[in-house]
Write a structure and sequence with these properties.
62 residues, 27% helix, 2 helices, alpha+beta, elongated
């Protein structure tokens, strides 16, 4: 059986808010995250998902 951590624990571990961790879970960006009732559980060894944003590169340096 795997050990799990809560959204709050993951937020402290990754340095982000618990709301952002919840959004990652809802968007299925965390592998192995499970919803039990109204609580999200993540594996203890879960890594923070990569930043989904990207830098816009403009032509001519603008």
């Amino acid at each position: 059986m795997l050990d799990y951590m809560t959204v709050k624990e993951a937020g402290k571990k990754w340095g982000i808010g618990s709301r952002m961790v919840t959004l990652y879970c809802v968007a299925e960006r965390n592998k192995g995250a499970e919803k039990v009732g109204n609580l999200w559980l993540l594996p203890k060894n879960a890594q923070k998902p990569e930043d989904g944003r990207y830098k816009k590169v403009m032509k001519n340096g603008y």
